[in-house]
Amino acid sequence: MEYEAFDVKAKKKVKLTNVEVVTLKNGRLAIKGKSPETGITVYRLLSKKEIEKLQKKK
Length: 58
Hints:
three-stranded antiparallel β-sheet; 1 helix; two-stranded antiparallel ribbon; DUF5679 domain-containing protein; DUF5679
């Protein structure tokens, strides 16, 4: 599944590479990936609907 996130350095939305699902300190799920434009790590918080879709796939 392809995810997009806002790259602050590039100042636009980019498609993420090397995507992985991570759990933040507060227990929230997020997508972590690399921006192909600038190479920085970008995070995107997941909505409840997206979390449900991920759990159904497992």
